[in-house]
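Deliverable D2.4 — example input (structure tokens):
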């Protein structure tokens, strides 16, 4: 075999090998793109404060401690947690959590788990803190994406401190979001209608 033939054969083999490697590493035609990260609420989408504007913090990785009173990661699989905090110049604050699970079924179970934790939060607070009286209220479901639910929580200590919070859990596909709004006060100070609108917006704009 001549040198010219051997060289031509080597080039052909190299080209074939490169083509095969490219086929293995290149994305298949029509392959689904990687899911984008969930979108968060903006400050203007929180319930309006009568005397102060909202400020939104950066989107941060991890689970927010502000939800720890009612919602936690205990007993939950390790998912991708991200959150955003909001504040006013006074005593009102809010936080939004997003959790991306592996499948819609997992997200459905997680949303129910979080809602159960919020539903039973008042009883758990009273059981663990004898000097605190707590009451929860159910404000119903919202017809947005795969659904959402809004609840309220009022706590009052034996020394007179009183706080009101609104919490919601919603789902879009395999992603769950939890929103909490809170300030000093009682149920009369809770902007339920505005918070329902905030919750619907939060779930609707995830993707």
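Example output (designed residues):
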């Amino acid at each position: 075999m001549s040198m010219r033939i051997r060289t031509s054969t080597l080039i052909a083999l190299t080209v074939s090998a490169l083509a095969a490697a490219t086929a293995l590493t290149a994305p298949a035609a029509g392959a689904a793109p990687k899911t984008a990260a969930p979108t968060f609420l903006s400050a203007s989408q929180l319930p309006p404060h009568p005397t102060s504007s909202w400020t939104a913090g950066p989107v941060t990785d991890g689970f927010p401690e502000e939800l720890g009173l009612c919602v936690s990661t205990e007993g939950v699989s390790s998912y991708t947690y991200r959150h955003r905090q909001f504040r006013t110049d006074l005593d009102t604050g809010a936080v939004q959590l997003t959790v991306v699970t592996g499948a819609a079924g997992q997200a459905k179970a997680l949303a129910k788990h979080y809602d159960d934790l919020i539903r039973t939060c008042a009883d758990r607070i009273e059981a663990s803190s004898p000097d605190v009286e707590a009451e929860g209220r159910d404000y119903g479901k919202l017809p947005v994406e795969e659904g959402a639910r809004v609840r309220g929580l009022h706590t009052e200590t034996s020394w007179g401190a009183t706080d009101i919070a609104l919490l919601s859990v919603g789902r879009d596909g395999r992603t769950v979001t939890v929103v909490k709004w809170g300030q000093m006060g009682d149920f009369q100070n809770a902007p339920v209608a505005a918070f329902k609108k905030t919750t619907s917006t939060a779930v609707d704009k995830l993707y």
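The longest strand covers residues 132-142.
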